Amino acid sequence: MSRPRFHLAFPVDNLEAARRFYGDVLGCPMGRESDHWIDFDFLGHQIVAHLAPEECQAAKTGAVDGKNVPVRHFGLILDWDQFDPLAERLRRAGTPFVIDPYVRFAGKAGEQKTMFVTDPAGNALEFKAFRDDVMVFATELET
Predict the structure, then answer these.
(1) Widest CA span in the chain
(2) Which of 67, 78, 117, 124 fits 129 for a cystine, CB–CB 3.0-4.6 Å?
(3) How many CA atoms lie less than 13 Å away from 30 in the CB half-sphere?
């Protein structure tokens, strides 16, 4: 089934650091680029790192599940079996976790693995995986 792809542009303060993080650490193939931006293939979605140091700032946090979650963030919902290899890849690259990988709602509807990291410019990213994909938009999380 074909799904629409999203496009997200975000600020960075160093294009080479963005190239290393998104290209080398996350493994995103690069697309077009200029002296001011780089396109990345984010598992089929187009994200664009724009050189805009004045726009880079740490995201505010909000309490979710007893953790301080960066309010402004983006990321991917992975397949369950893709989550742990990505977490290990991030560990091997020395990427610090804002929130370490863990399982939310274990054994309940909406069970998911989640983790948060930041890129070198401070943009927060969340990667998650649902045990049951139909739970992504579930309104009732308790069983």
Answers:
(1) 52
(2) 78
(3) 16
Count: domains in the chain: 1
Higher-confidence residue of 102 and 105: namely 102
- Check residues 118 and 139 and name the one with the higher pLDDT: 118
Within-domain flag for 140: no
CA distance 16 to 111: 37
Report CA torsion sign: 114, 95, 62, 14.
negative
Q: What is the CATH number of the domain that holds 130?
A: 3.10.180.10
Domain for residue 93, yes or no? Answer: yes
pLDDT digits (tens, 9 = 90+) for 6-59: 999 999 999 999 999 999 999 999 999 999 999 999 999 999 999 999 999 888
- 7: which DSSP letter? E
DSSP states along 17-67 = HHIIIIIIIS-PPEEEE-SSEEEEEETTEEEEEEE-GGG--PPPEEEETTE
Q: Residue 17 is part of which domain span?
A: 7-135
Give the strands of the sheet with 112-118, arranged side by side: 73-78, 124-130, 112-118, 97-104
